[in-house]
Amino acid sequence: MIEMFLIFLSQSLKSRLIGLMKYKPSDEVVLCLLPCAAIHTWGMKHPIDVCFCDREMRVMKTYRNLPPRKFLSCKGAACVFERYACMEDWSKVGDFVVAEVLRVE
Q: What is the pLDDT of residues 6-20, one digit of tens each?
């Protein structure tokens, strides 16, 4: 299965540290942290959904409804997609992600 997302690419140190905290859950934003193989949810007020991908954009690990104050890593991951947790479908291990970048931060 191929998942399609419209995303914001987060590459600067500042935008990576702030991450999703810059947005409201109702904004329906998906962030891509590139390069990235580890994330944390310190400072988050809401749970998030996380998807680690390899260089071919194949999903390696996914997490749904990850609460604040957690740390995750995925050996071999090239990037991470994050969004505020919601009931919508999310990628599964083995899926390929096709991402159209809306804005680079």
A: 688 888 888 888 888
